[in-house]
Amino acid sequence: MKLESNYAIYIFFIGVMAMLAPTALMGQYADHRGRYVDSIETVLTSTTPPKGDDLLRAYRDLAWGYLQKDGKKSEENARKLLALTYPAKAMMLRVDALRILGLHAYGKNDYATALEYFDQALAVNDSMRSESRYTEKNIDDNLSSLYGSIANLYNIQDQALLAIEYYQKALPIFEKYNWLESQTILYHNIGELYLSMGNTDEAKRNYELAVKKGTETGDSLMVALPTRGLMKIHIGNNDYEQALKAANTCYAYYHPHREEEPNDYLQVLAGLTRIHLMEGHTDLLLAEKTITEALSLLDEDADSETLSDVYSATAELAMANHDWKKAADYSLKAIDADPNETFNDMDNYALLTEIYAMMGQKDKAAEYVHKLHQGMERFSTEHYQSGISQMEVRYQTLKKEAEIEQLKIEKRWWTWGTSLVCVILLLVILLFIIVSRWYKLRHQHKEVLVRIDAEAKERERIGRDLHDRMGALLTGIKLNLEVFAKNHQDTIAKDNALKLTDEAVVEMRNVAHHLMPDSLKRYGLHTALMNFCQSVPTVSFTFVGKEHRLPKPKEEAIYYIVHELVNNAAKNAHANNIYVQLIINEGYTAVNVSDDGQGLPEQTQSLRFGMQSIEQRVKAIDGKLDIYSKPGEGTEVNIEIKE
Q: Which residues neighbour 254 within 8 Å (Cβ) at sequence distance 6 or greater?
């Protein structure tokens, strides 16, 4: 029995383009093959309803066909299809049914259930490899669409690293069959994710690959889509020539298609406005012309990103014309366009700081300096926590994949070993168990080390970005405030504004320093821990032994373990006094962290998970962990590491 259901490339297209769950659900299927659900319903209720393979096909067609018309009927037919695939052993259609159910869960924002369905579909698809009736292309089609669906699932949850990983898993399949449009959209979406993370180098590289593949398709949309991303990067880099070239390419496509792609066209007009405001190339008349057109086309149907983009560009033009009231009004509208605070709001906070300073409203200027600082700190913390969370999911996924692969190996060994005599079989099984356990422990050990190294690199990158990018921004604000105060001879306003700015700069540098302290790389564990403890009023630090540098991975791991233990004691245990002791001798290192807090509650889930994470880190550097705690009597953690 061979049932044709090869819609993978189409499904992947719509899936990776849809960023919101409801629209993704509606767009996953279009009735492009003339499946008329009413006709199928009529056949099912006739005196001679279909049977066997025809019945399964009917339920499949109804599940897909109703997906954009009636979600309840689509889900009902998908469940009927799923139930029938087991006695019929129709694995290809089972993947279809599971994928549709996953899309319904996705549309209801039940992401955990959606992932379970997609994982089940992947497992079924993998088992199809042992069935000769399914071709390699059947399996690859399923894989590409499932990877796209899982990537969208992580994307909608702002887990960019995991989304990128699954998009990249689909890439070899697209290259294998030379699916150029799929490659173009994939590279474009990866570029969008990297841009949202602030990694412009990787965003630019993927956009350029998308342009290259899009050019090969001969489809101008496939070229314009990633070029719009390149335009934003070139504007951010103040590269006038490249920005104008990219904007003209986008304009050539989106202007004739402005009714079909209204949001994209408006963002191109906003980009052109900014290009005409670039230093050394300022043309206020052209800037006024492009933003006037954008505002005339703007309506309530525009998405929040487009509204914010157009309003911000309008504010920037008003600033260039020294119309501070208009600039303030549009900057505020840009912020209000999206009820959820985004990283783009940081740029508007910076604009408002300068605008209110020029208007002489020092309190408002100080207010937005404060908002800018708070927003930076929150976004850096959320970005870091998101990165750690995604690495934890990735670690668990790798572990699960390793366990599945291990089960496959065991099964193969068992099948082969049954042909041997009893004594030889027992010896082989015993040897296999020993080797398997050793390999598994070694593999887990390696995974934890890789995760620790990835965390350190991510901390260093975030710290560097905070220091380089936001430090420069705050310094610029400070200089503007100095000029304003000097011109207006308002010494009190000057002192207050500069004091707030200096505090923001110091706090930002503290955040960046603790993410990846320079002292850890330059002077070692002793100095880094001492500096960290001195920055926390409730922490006392003592050092015993001789100055001795440990291997870099061990120093980084110990530093972040102590960092986490101190934070736990201060925030969760509400300790008034925390004591950190570091002992370094030749071939031996020990750390003791104790506090007078509330102690560990009895086996709460959150604390059990937190200590498990610390224990994994300690094991990864060949250490030993001991914890002593009672409710209300504080906590003591001892860590010993042998070199």
A: 224, 261, 264, 265, 268
For strand 588-595 and strand 635-642, is the pairing parallel, antiparallel, or unpaired?
A: antiparallel
Topology of the domain covering 520-642: Heat Shock Protein 90 (3.30.565)
Residue recorded with tokens 């700069």:
505
The DSSP call for residue 466 is: I
**CATH code, 1-157:** 1.25.40
Q: What are phi and psi of 421, to 5 degrees?
A: -65, 160
pTM (global) more than 0.70: no
405: helix, coil or strand?
helix
| Contact yes or no for 385/378 (Cβ under 8 A) | no
* Length of the chain as a residue count: 643
The predicted model gives 118-147 an average pLDDT of 92
> Which of 274, 288, 192 is closest to 235 using CA atoms?
274
SS3 category, 74? helix
Residue reference for tokens 């259609």? 93
Report, as an integer, the average pLDDT of 365-369.
83
- Contact, 27 vs 18, CB < 8 A? yes
Judge whether 201 and 208 are in contact, CB under 8 Å. no
Rounded Cα–Cα distance for residues 295 and 291 (Å): 6
Cα–Cα distance, 210 to 224 (Å, whole number): 10
For 515-530, what is each residue's pLDDT tens digit?
557 778 788 889 888 9
Contact predicate 331/355, CB 8 Å: yes
Q: What tokens appear for 329 in the block?
A: 């009004």
Strand partners, 594: 579, 636
**DSSP assignment letter at 202:** H
Residues 6+ apart with CB under 8 A from 616: 448
Q: Residue 642: phi, psi to the nearest 5?
A: -100, 140
Residue in 606, 580, 582, 595 with CA at minimum distance from that of residue 629? 595
Instruction: Report how far apart, in Å, the C-alpha atoms of 28 and of each of 78, 143, 445, 524, 588 are.
Output: 14, 16, 41, 54, 59
Q: Name the amino acid, one letter, at 381.
A: T
SS3 641: strand
Shortest CA distance to 530 belongs to which of 472, 476, 485, 584? 584
State residue 640 phi and psi, 5-degree precision: -120, 135
Q: Which amino acid is at 386?
A: S
Going from N- to C-terminal start, the domains of the chain cover 1-157, 372-515, 520-642
207-259, pLDDT tens digit by residue?
999 999 999 999 999 999 999 999 999 999 999 999 999 999 999 999 999 98
* Phi/psi of residue 49, nearest 5 degrees: -65, 155
Could you tell me the sign of the dihedral formed by the alpha carbons of 135, 140, 143, 144, in that order? negative
Confirm if 527 and 519 have CB atoms less than 8 A apart.
yes
